[in-house]
UniProtKB/TrEMBL annotation:
Keyword vocabulary terms for this entry: Membrane, Transmembrane, Transmembrane helix
Domain GGDEF, first and last residues per copy: 225-354
Protein name in UniProt: diguanylate cyclase
Protein species of origin: Marinomonas sargassi
EC number: 2.7.7.65
Annotated transmembrane regions: 27-49, 55-73, 80-107, 127-145, 157-183
Pfam families found in the cross-reference section: GGDEF
Annotated Gene3D superfamilies: 3.30.70.270
NCBIfam families noted in UniProt: GGDEF
Length: 354
């Protein structure tokens, strides 16, 4: 019978892509709605100020923001972003040409340059050129329209308009950097998880144990807390694979991992050392207590049904335990645990040697 993992992954409909799409949809939806509301407000404001050119321009802007929302709704996010860029650039240009740089509408070009730069659809060269073009337009309109000054009866409020435009243009910049940082941290966490976990069982892998516990073992020794290292190996696992198949062998490993984890404390570390071998670190415990605990686990495993399709099939494990001692190096402990595991195997398997 084919399992899910036997099929080639469908990249287009994988949950990751859907999640990314949803995130893009939501961000553009939020920007589109804010753009729409702001332009409706400005339409009334300019109508009230009796500036017909800007009122008309706002009507055009409102239509463009509706188009942005429509393209976004249809899943054409790239079109939606381009339309938003066109609207914001044209609007900044036009508003500054009418009211002068004292209106502060030129500030909206800065978040545009940031959005263009982080847009993953553009290659690095395009992103740099596109991002810088907004800065260039900013510099040009600041210089070119420097002397424009529109005289109207609400002129005293111009500093407030300048101030609020500077703030509103700054918010998306900060938000954009925070989103980039959030995505970056999330990806780093995902990569770290992939690097330190075993794919089949979800346990820590050998790299994690080697990299982190090497240092920790010294720390634990220094604090003189006893801890025990346990090497565990499934007995005659080759037979499981050969008689029942590799998939059933995998099922045994997954169920054994879950069982081992369920029987140990959160502070203990269970890792997949390789193939059908596990390395367990029991913290804050004496060798005697570790022996009693592991022997009980060994017995429970030998009585537990681990294969759903073969409930009568039983699997056993052998264990080798060593206790930490002052100045004993991590590598030496592993060697000692391996030696005891070998003794348990040689002694007939399904046993614990400490
Ligand atoms: N299904 C499955 N099998 C694995 C995996 N990793 C290693 N194995 C198998 O584990 C088996 C280990 O066999 P051996 O080293 O001969 O050990 P054993 O049969 O358990 O015998 P003893 O350890 O001496 O009791 C091999 O057949 C490997 O192919 C895995 O991820 N999944």
């Amino acid at each position: 019978m084919l399992k899910n993992k036997d099929y080639l992954p469908d990249l287009v409909s994988s949950s990751h892509v859907q999640y990314d799409d949803y995130r893009k949809y939501s961000v553009i939806l939020a920007v589109g709605l804010i753009g729409l509301v702001i332009h409706i407000v400005f339409l009334f404001l300019f109508y009230y100020l009796n500036i017909p050119s800007l009122s008309l321009f706002n009507i055009a802007s409102i239509m463009l923001w509706i188009a942005v929302l429509h393209e976004n709704f249809k899943g054409r996010h790239s079109n939606a972003i381009m339309l938003a860029c066109v609207e914001i650039t044209a609007h900044s240009l036009f508003a500054v040409s009418q009211l002068g740089p004292v209106s502060g509408f030129q500030f909206y070009l800065w978040p545009m340059s940031l959005f263009a730069t982080v847009n993953p659809k553009l290659n690095k060269f395009e992103a740099t050129a596109f991002g810088f073009s907004f800065i260039l337009i900013f510099g040009l309109i600041e210089t070119y329209f420097r002397d424009v000054h529109y005289v109207h009866h609400l002129e005293e409020y111009m500093p407030w308009l300048y101030f609020s435009n500077a703030i509103f243009a700054g918010i998306p910049m900060v938000a954009c950097i925070i989103v980039v940082r959030f995505v970056n941290e999330q990806q780093q966490d995902e990569l770290r998880e992939i690097a330190i976990k075993d794919e089949l069982t979800g346990l820590y892998n050998r790299r994690y144990v080697n990299d982190t516990l090497k240092n920790n073992s010294l720390k634990l020794n220094h604090k003189r807390q006893p801890y025990c290292m346990v090497l565990a190996d499934v007995d005659y696992f080759k037979k499981v694979n050969d008689t029942l198949g590799h998939d059933i062998g995998d099922e045994v490993l997954v169920n054994l991992s879950a069982f081992l984890q369920s029987r140990l404390r959160k502070s203990d570390i269970v890792s997949r050392w390789g193939g059908e071998e596990f390395l367990i670190l029991l913290t804050d415990i004496s060798k005697h207590d570790a022996f009693v605990l592991i022997d009980k686990i060994r017995q429970d495993i030998s009585e537990k049904a681990l294969i759903s399709s073969h409930p009568d099939y039983r699997v056993t494990m052998s264990f080798g335990i060593v206790e930490s001692q002052d100045q004993v190096l991590y590598g030496e402990l592993i060697k000692a645990a391996d030696k005891r595991l070998y003794e348990a195997k040689a002694g007939g398997r399904n046993r614990v040697v400490a």
